[in-house]
Design a protein that fits this description.
mainly alpha; 0% strand; 92% helix
Length: 85
């Protein structure tokens, strides 16, 4: 596996873990209005959870696309970035 591809997959996996934790926290807020208040729970349910969920889906699609990419593609990217430097 190309080192740039491995680095990209590691970064996407880290982002995915952060988003999972955020979704769990948002769900906790949305389902416990007695602890976090009704306004906070409604905002979490109406805004934060859908946006974080959409972001998580995009991250998962990115991870699949990176995992399926070929070594030749990463070599072209590496050569192009080396030329720019």
């Amino acid at each position: 596996m190309h080192p740039m591809k491995a680095k990209a997959l590691d970064k996407v996996a880290e982002i995915s873990r952060i988003q999972d934790a955020s979704l769990q926290g948002g769900l906790r807020v949305a389902t416990n209005p007695q602890t976090y208040g009704w306004i906070g729970s409604l905002v979490a349910a109406a805004v934060m959870l859908p946006l974080t969920g959409l972001s998580a889906v995009i991250t998962d699609v990115s991870q699949v696309m990176i995992a399926r990419s070929s070594a030749e593609t990463w070599e072209r990217v590496a050569r192009a970035s080396a030329k720019e430097e």
